[in-house]
Specification:
Structural class: alpha+beta
CATH superfamily of the largest domain: DNA Polymerase III, subunit A, domain 2
CATH class of the largest domain: Alpha Beta
Radius of gyration: 19 Å
CATH topology of the largest domain: DNA Polymerase III, Chain A, domain 2
CATH architecture of the largest domain: Roll
Number of domains: 2
Oligomer: single chain
Number of strands: 14
Largest sheet: 10 strands, antiparallel
Shape: globular
Strand content: 25-35%
Number of helices: 6
Order of helices and strands: HEEEEEHEHEEHEEEHEEEH
Length: 245
């Protein structure tokens, strides 16, 4: 399938996430971050291409064209499962993540060895985003029970139905286009980031830290993998996190 240079440029933005993508006629595309080494499997990018096309399926970006791929999975079932995540979820918060705020949070990765962003509302206060080094945080928490070292905190304009908190890996945030986003948080741990400038929607799973789902907090020494896009696992993880206090 041949596409214009404009369409190929759009898809090229997300090639680092996955060599394969799903096209859904007439213009939609999905890139699941589970490709490559899988470290960004908590991210799915959805968007629209300038070109229209007739054939849906799984493709790989080649030299100036898209090549069909014989995928080992049913892409229609994969997208249906993805849609079901939203159908079975309730919105709990909505806020604006401005481009300059996103840039400042990402800069924490380089300037202060930041690893994660915690987005939260506590005690009915304003919604905030805070960058921090999770490795140092857990080392200190386990060894000395000291508070987390905050690299930067930003207040976000928006509303929430109740207190909440979610975690995002800074390395994953670096993979999405640098622009402003309208962000919606759902009760199953899913976040929808709708771009305000570029026509893409980034779907992200609450990326809780390390192996806290599997072990007691005092046993945690390293960071593990992010949650997969599985609402059942997310609910179980939340129960375990609550039990850890």
């Amino acid at each position: 399938m041949r596409l214009s240079k404009r369409s190929l440029a759009v898809l090229g933005r997300f090639k680092s996430l996955n060599d394969e993508l799903i096209l859904l006629a007439p213009r939609r595309f999905f890139v699941f971050g589970e490709g490559k080494d899988g470290i960004h499997r908590g991210l799915v990018v959805e968007g629209s291409l300038p070109d229209r096309f007739a054939d849906s399926g799984v493709y790989k970006v080649g030299s100036g064209e898209l090549q069909p791929v014989q995928a080992k999975y049913d892409f229609k079932r994969k997208l249906q499962f993805f849609d079901d995540l939203y159908a079975n979820a309730a919105r709990i918060a909505q806020f604006t993540l401005a481009a300059d705020t996103l840039k400042a949070l990402i800069a924490a990765t380089k300037d202060a060895n930041g690893t994660h962003v915690r987005i939260y509302r506590r005690h009915g206060e304003a919604i905030k985003a805070r960058a921090f080094d999770a490795r140092k945080y857990f080392d200190e928490l386990i060894a000395e029970h000291s508070p987390a070292e905050n690299i930067g905190e930003h207040e976000l304009a928006g509303q929430a139905d109740r207190d909440f908190f979610v975690y995002l890996k800074l390395s994953t945030l670096k993979r999405i286009p640098l622009q402003g986003y309208s962000v919606t948080v759902f009760d199953n741990g899913l976040l929808e980031l709708a771009g305000t400038d570029i026509d893409v929607v980034c779907h992200m799973r609450d990326q809780r830290l390390g192996q806290a789902f599997e072990q007691q907090l005092e046993q945690l020494r390293t960071l593990g993998s992010v949650l997969s896009l599985d609402p059942r696992r997310a609910q179980e993880a939340r129960r375990k996190m609550k039990a850890l206090g």
